[in-house]
Input
Amino acid sequence: MLSANKSQVTNMNTKTIETFCPECDQEVTANIIEQSSTVRIKGEDIHFTEHVAICPRCGAEIGDSRIEGPNIDAAYDVYRKRHGIVSPNYLKSLRKRYGLSTREFSLFLGFGEQTEHRYETGSIPDNSQNTIIKLASTGAGAAFLLSENGGKITQKSVERVKAFIDKKTSKHQKASKISLTK
Output
């Protein structure tokens, strides 16, 4: 349940939030508590700790998007860790190492123009797309993806992908030389 409110989160150290209680029909300083919760993600029960706003007057749970959004993120993080799925932060970091826009990186991966952006903002990729993202983190994987999808991206992006491949390849060659000399 989401409630419309105009107030801001107060100091999280005090674990309260200024919000509107629909049961009391008033603005309140609600207490934020932690509790165990279970949600279903892709047909699987995910157990996690959520934060909930509680009205100090009537004791009702108050829905507030400033709390519920991070709760959804926490549940998704549990699911991602359980299934070895890349996190939004990892994906964004990988894209930045390539130096590509979200659109260009998405096309380079062989996805639709907006798909990668959705994953960077919290959506969960399916197993095949997760595998492609992991593949893109290696020099050999990047070379394969470039051979498959290079025609879908700009020449400038192709050059950036080639630079990523060169960097990955040179790191791998240096690591191989070090291990051979030991």
